[in-house]
Amino acid sequence: MSDVNASVQDALASLSASRAIVVPASERVADRIRTEVAEARLRVGARLPEQALSEALQVSRNTIREALSQLVAERVLVRIPNRGVFVAQPEIDDIRDVYSARLVIEPGAVRYGLLAGDPAALSAVRAAYDRGRAAAAAGDWVGVADANQHFHRDVVALGGSPRLGREMGRLLAEMRLVFQRMPEVREFHEPYLARNGEITEMLAAGRTEQAADELVRYLVTARDQLLAAYARL
User: Which residue in 91, 23, 92 sits closest to 63, CA to CA?
Assistant: First the structure.
């Protein structure tokens, strides 16, 4: 009996040391498509044909169908009967829902994250902010939007949780679709670039509670600005 207990303890130690999660093929495909949306290479209204995706990704059409169904459930894609699957166009209720999730995830990742004080993780946050500054200096406001996406992804990475990272990937894909309806990229992103810098400095100084509180204010302001803009569309 003691040998069995020792074996269980060894297995638990091994599982704790290796946090790798086996991901089904359909989820890997969904993640690839979701990334293309988050990086704005797939835009609102784009049609996603099963056969072309199957050939491009070298997986079965059944796997493609499962991945597309997952993304439809996430509201990243929409299925139109007799026409196919398309990249979705978010509405006001989607903005409210996405920000409700972000207000839990992002400040929580900072406040309770396993990597909140990790130099490599903090370096990634700073690098994303620096890419935004460089893009702004070059007048590349789409590049600023890209860097902002990466900034928030890297903030959530401070949580040290692959599950949180995957959930943030879903939210960022929806956010990219939200921004595609915004008429002026610069007017929205320019003020938040400075706030990204403030949060970066707070994190670097170990002021995690202050950074988390600032993220809450930041996200509420951004949400309200987007809701007002969408109400005028």
Answer: 23
